[in-house]
């Protein structure tokens, strides 16, 4: 039996064995709507794999807009020549609706909820199973506790606990990707990254971005001001060259390109 797991976002996909994002695997368009279809060909290799799959697991499904999941449903029906939801494939959607809903820029709470899976025509057809016990935390409770003292730096303590043998494994892609510190704000992430990079051996070289404003003939936006901005999806103004950088070919992986390539940066 062929059973494969995918995830809505790249972070969750890296945790899965051979993980891929759903956009990458199914060829979901970036702007999915009520009539959208994936770019999978019925005669292509991806369609052949879907016909062979008996079970498909979709992790972090609540993060996906309902139009995305409905697009996959329509494409599966077309590939399987069936009017049954998802062409008769057994689909397991996992996730927590209390965590992250679909991101809709400049939307109200009601508009955001309206794009979620619970508003889809597929939702009433799904069997809901609620998990009540965190099995991983129960079996590994010691590692889930970070010891904190009154006089210690909490960020330093966190890095030391999560990356206990960083000096020996800083070049290991597996070690770096298997450990992560989550933060609620981008500035906290940047601060933790800077502290973590500082612990890598070797001399530090700092590179800065070149920022300019288009159609700014009056020079209203000085370069110094632009350097202070960090828009969503863009890295900080300065980058330190010291650590291994992992380029993930998650969006368009080719047969001759490895999913993870460790670059010594």
From TrEMBL:
Its cofactor is Mg(2+). Pfam families: PIF1 (PF05970). Keywords: ATP-binding, DNA damage, DNA recombination, DNA repair, Helicase, Hydrolase, Nucleotide-binding. InterPro entries: DNA_helicase_pif1-like_DEAD, P-loop_NTPase. It comes from the Eukaryota. Its EC number is 5.6.2.3. It is an enzyme of class 5 (isomerase). The keyword DNA repair applies. GO terms for biological process: DNA recombination; DNA repair; telomere maintenance. One of its GO terms (molecular function) is 5'-3' DNA helicase activity. Residues 2-148 form the DNA helicase Pif1-like DEAD-box helicase domain. It catalyses: ATP + H2O = ADP + phosphate + H(+). Belongs to the helicase family. This is ATP-dependent DNA helicase.
């Amino acid at each position: 039996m062929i059973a494969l797991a995918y995830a809505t976002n790249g972070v969750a996909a890296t945790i899965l064995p051979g993980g891929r994002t759903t956009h990458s695997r199914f060829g979901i368009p970036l702007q999915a709507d009520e009539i959208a279809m994936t770019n999978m060909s019925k005669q292509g290799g991806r369609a052949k794999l879907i016909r062979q799959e008996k079970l498909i697991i979709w992790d972090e499904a609540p993060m996906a807009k309902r139009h995305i999941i409905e697009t996959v449903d329509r494409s599966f029906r077309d590939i399987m020549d069936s009017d049954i939801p998802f062409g008769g494939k057994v689909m397991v959607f996992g996730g927590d609706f209390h965590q992250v809903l679909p991101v809709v820029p400049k939307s109200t709470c009601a508009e955001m909820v309206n794009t979620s899976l619970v508003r889809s025509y597929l939702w009433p057809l799904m069997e809901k199973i609620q998990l009540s016990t965190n099995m991983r935390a129960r079996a590994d409770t010691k590692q889930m506790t970070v010891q904190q003292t009154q006089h210690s730096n909490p960020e330093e303590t966190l890095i030391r606990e999560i990356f206990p043998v960083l000096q020996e494994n800083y070049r290991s892609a597996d070690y770096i990707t298997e450990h992560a510190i989550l933060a609620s704000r981008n500035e906290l992430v940047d601060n933790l990254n800077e502290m973590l990079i500082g612990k890598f051996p070797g001399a530090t070289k700092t590179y800065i971005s070149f920022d300019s404003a288009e159609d700014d003939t009056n020079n209203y936006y000085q370069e110094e001001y632009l350097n202070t901005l960090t828009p969503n999806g863009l890295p900080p103004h300065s980058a330190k060259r010291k650590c291994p950088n992992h380029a993930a070919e998650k969006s368009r992986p080719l047969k001759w390109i490895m999913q993870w390539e460790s670059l010594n940066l």
